[in-house]
Amino acid sequence: MEKTLRIKSILTEKPVNQDICVQGWLKSKRDSKGLSFLDVTDGSSLTGLQVIADESLANYHTDIAQLSTGCSIVARGQLVASPAKGQEVELHAREITVYGWAQPETYPLQKKRHSFEFLRSVAHLRGRTNSLGAVARIRSRLSWAIHQFFQQRGFFQVHTPVITTSDCEGAGEMFTVTSFDLQKLPRTAGAVDFSQDFFGRPASLTVSGQLEAEAYALALGNVYTFGPTFRAENSNTSRHLAEFWMLEPEMAFCDLEGDMDLAEELLKFLISDCLENCAEDMDLFARFIDKTLMAKLDNVLKHEFVRISYSDAVKELEKSGRSFAFPVAWGIDLQSEHERYLAETLFQRPVIVTDYPKTIKPFYMRVNDDNKTVAAMDILFPGIGEIIGGSQREERLEQLTARMVEAGIALENYQWYLDLRRFGTVPHAGFGLGFERIIQFVTGMGNIRDVIAFPRTPGSTAV
RNA sequence: UCCCCGGUAGCUCAGUCGGUAGAGCAGGUGGCUGUUAACCACCUUGUCGGCGGUUCGAAUCCGUCCCGGGGAGCCA
Questions:
Q1: Which nucleotide is nearest, taking the CA of residue A361 and each C1'?
Q2: ipTM score of the complex?
């Protein structure tokens, strides 16, 4: 196929008076006397390239005049400085070929703004819109930035398994993975006999790669895992997906302090990276999605995150004078309204809450010397709540075993995890970042279903 | 899963006290114009989310289910 220039590079490099070829989709067409203005996008940038097609083209009346939003074309011609306002350069077409038509009566995307709710019903086409296209580009950039951040710091990426047979990873309901014929389940004494299933035991989609990442942190030092994660929770909110992407770094020879430092550095890096490298797309969000976006991002970049212990946070909430719908008391987990008060009202910047009561946190978090709290940290962002949850891990075999017994976990399934403490255990720490949540924060998009291409939520799979 | 709100033309929505529906945009036709979400004129479009009920009569009232939105819980 003929080599074409991407519109993004045409708009930045402006190779005026050169013959070029572009391929893309029509965003709109405006007709004038004897010529048509085609607004062409190829997905490389928000701004499209204006292509001028005049009636001297052989197929002007047969093809060009019939073009409408969504049609795909290839255009060859000369790039020239534009005589009109609105664009610096434009392509004077010498030849235009139509790849594919898009009947305007049936093509769902119109030359106007659509609601995100509607666009969700055409998830396979919505990437062609300005806003969802911008989301997709920013998502890709953030993914790349994550790898860059960790690779620059000597972290190794570990591909942790998607299928797991750990029957409890301590994070919510799981999706079962089976090769059984569900109409004919083998049973012994009424119960399903998983010994006959594919893996010889119950298997699920992973709810976290953390435990496996720990194994490799205790081999390679610093690692991260970044991939799809599954939760079968019946969560119906703008912040939850059944399938989402999670980033989980894990560091050997690291305590909670180092964990928090890395998390803060990462979040600031990701925001800066987008502002620097996705300026055009970011401007779209700042203008049309959230007018306060730039101020919010600036606020995060400019300030040190507040670090406050759970115990002190509870004291702050108690003396706030606020009447919360849910009670505030030491030992009870913070509710959304409490987290929001801390991040949005009291401190008005990201807040890291540390050292939660051990009774409300998972077994793998390291018990502090007070024997009441664990070395945990949650990072709360204004507007979106918890964006990161992490901890120093319990590296002491005896304490870990005790906590697992307390939590009612079947030790026989976790011998490998306990081995990590039996053989050359070291202090280590890590955290989990919900990838879609950082995209939401960076773009200002209100619903998590609009920052992933094909969202999976209870009762709904797009495409 | 719980609470609240909503579902009317392809899209975004209006529809009063129960009397079989309307606007803007899109689309079509014509006109005009180096146009910028182009403009002007005319025209088309409906299982009023599904099912059941009340009523002479239901978009409107009641029940139920489905879907969407906001909030909560769970969490990332």
A1: B75
A2: 0.89
